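We include the pair:
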Amino acid sequence: MKFSIVLLAFVIISCSSGKNDAQKIIDKAIHTAGGDKFLNSTIEFDFRDRHYTTRRDGDNFSHERVFQDSTDTIHDFLNNKGFYREINNQKVDVPDSMAVKYARSVNATIYFALLPYGLNDEAVQKKFMGNTTIDDQPYFIVEVSFKEEGGGEDFNDVFLYWIHEENYTMDYLAYLYYTDGGGLRFRNFYNRRSVNDILFQDYINYKPKNDAATITELEDLYKKGELEEFSRIELKDIKVY
């Protein structure tokens, strides 16, 4: 009897620290996508007629976005110290409300482009949500939410990630957001490629046809064909060095 109890306890501990451990699943997904390469590389890409550059050095980061409007070259900078903008190489004053909006836009684009890197940030809270199958492929589902402290203005947002059980790629994601009127999105990947040992992928971005849908219903709605395409997320001219 005592042996059986010990064996049962071992099984429980093994399960809780094994495949259904959200932290370990995310760690493996990040390793598959590039691991430490994210920390030691400069990454550049184009997205919707804007050029992005991101660099990291430990806890320090630097994000940049450059684009052309009708007459000027606009260059946005976001780093640990904050946000600022240059127009035609001259620093300009930006009202605080707009600086927050621009900073959020820069950060969100780079955050999504580099997923699953970023899911081990200090403010991230992970929860294992179970297993599922999509298109005959097995997946872990991991929920990500954020602590208010360090979670930014969007700390109320909630994400779900579908991580392949065998190869630990992140093939699907869904999110509930509250900024700009809020909403739900579901994404599935395509065009996965490796650039200097870091994986990048594009997405078809869907929204539910029914405004009353919840984030936990999006997988079933996707399987039933009850999501409609909202946009394509395509990264172009990627460079890693």
